[in-house]
């Protein structure tokens, strides 16, 4: 069958919690603002030993529970580029540690939209190659470690939380079938957000990196907001509408929206457009933004709460600095 389904999803988040009061203390921003405007009750914070690969491995083990890892044909990492080491193959580490001895391993990077768009890439690979039947997609993030809470230019990243998700895909599985994807890219934002002290552009300075250059930074937050705010909601709605249309469905078929972490006000506007309510989604206020793992966490929590209905369309939403917006439709059940 020319279909690919989601067989299972595994989630791992560290037990340690960083709540809204702690983020308020670190940032100097009132706690009620952290809760109401930033939308954070608490996030999970990884220990020194809970590396990006460690969390990815733990999520992978949960995703393949009861499944023989020797049957995996590919292990793909699509999480944060801030990993255990600089220029480190996280996919290969995960492949080795879970015993996927017959699988190849590689990585996909599109920042926080990578998880959503990777479903399209891997579905295409699986349907084009008769030898690839089972794929494990892993996303992991520890970006709380590279946030400077005293730098309010980067305040939109104060919602970051640590955690990982893994998705087991199976060709021919008529369950949670991956449909179509749509992405919008706007490269005018490519240099608005980065860790500016690392990379070939600043190679000579790498021996003496200033403290601030080790953190994610937004040099001109007002300029970015002026250009980004007017288009964000429209781009989210556009990728949703086009992924649904390409899949052969209509807006009325949407039963669940699995979002990247976003302000509640934006999520409410998206849901309202499609005549949905919060019962048709999951707000990540107790996870924070776990990079491209967000949509998979939302799916998992939505299923636990009985919000995903058989035969309805779940739309996975992602957005990444750079800037990209992406949506993938999944026929649930």
If you had to describe this structure to a student in words, what would you say it looks like?
By secondary structure, the protein is α/β, with parallel strands linked by helices. Helices cover 29% and strands 21% of the residues. The chain has helices at residues 20-27, 31-36, 52-63, 90-97, 114-128, 221-246, 264-273, 294-304; strands at residues 4-12, 17-19, 42-44, 74-77, 104-107, 134-141, 163-171, 177-185, 254-258, 313-320, 324-331. A five-stranded mixed sheet has the order 1-7-6-4-5. It has a four-stranded mixed sheet with strand order 8-11-10-9, sandwiched between helices. Strands 2-3 form a two-stranded antiparallel sheet. β4, α4 (90-97) and β5 (104-107) form a beta-alpha-beta unit. The two termini are 17 Å apart.
Secondary-structure element order, N to C: EEHHEHEHEHEEEHEHHEE
* Shape verdict: globular
Q: Strand-residue fraction?
A: 15-25%
Helix content: 25-40%
Uncertain parts:
none
Main sheet strand line-up: 1-7-6-4-5
Number of helices: 8
Task: Give the averaged pLDDT, no decimals.
Answer: 95
| Major pleated sheet | 5 strands, mixed
**Subunit arrangement of the protein:** single chain
Q: Measured on Cα atoms, how large is the radius of gyration?
A: 19 Å
According to DSSP, the number of beta strands is 11
Termini distance?
A: 17 Å
What would you call the structural class?
A: alpha/beta
